[in-house]
């Protein structure tokens, strides 16, 4: 695999590491999303320990308002984080 393909597979693996803990193994509950964010994005997102921040992120991602975050909805978060990281790299 190329480096990019390895990273893409890594994103999928991280999603499933957390999504398979409770309920539907292909969606993240709010608790699973909180664990993922606080453990995997702690240096990237601010206020990851603040429940209101997690609630806001969850509401923004849960496009269909079913109380779960699908992989497609999770990709929105990955995209936002990646765009911010790209901007920050150019500031350095």
UniProtKB/TrEMBL annotation:
Entry keyword Metal-binding: yes
Protein name, per record? EF-hand domain-containing protein
Lineage, please? Eukaryota, Metazoa, Chordata, Craniata, Vertebrata
Q: Which organism is it from?
A: Felis catus
Q: Does the record carry Calcium as a key word?
A: yes
Q: Which UniProt keywords apply?
A: Calcium, Metal-binding, Repeat
The record's listing under Pfam families reads: EF-hand_1, S_100
Q: Which residues form the EF-hand domain?
A: 49-84
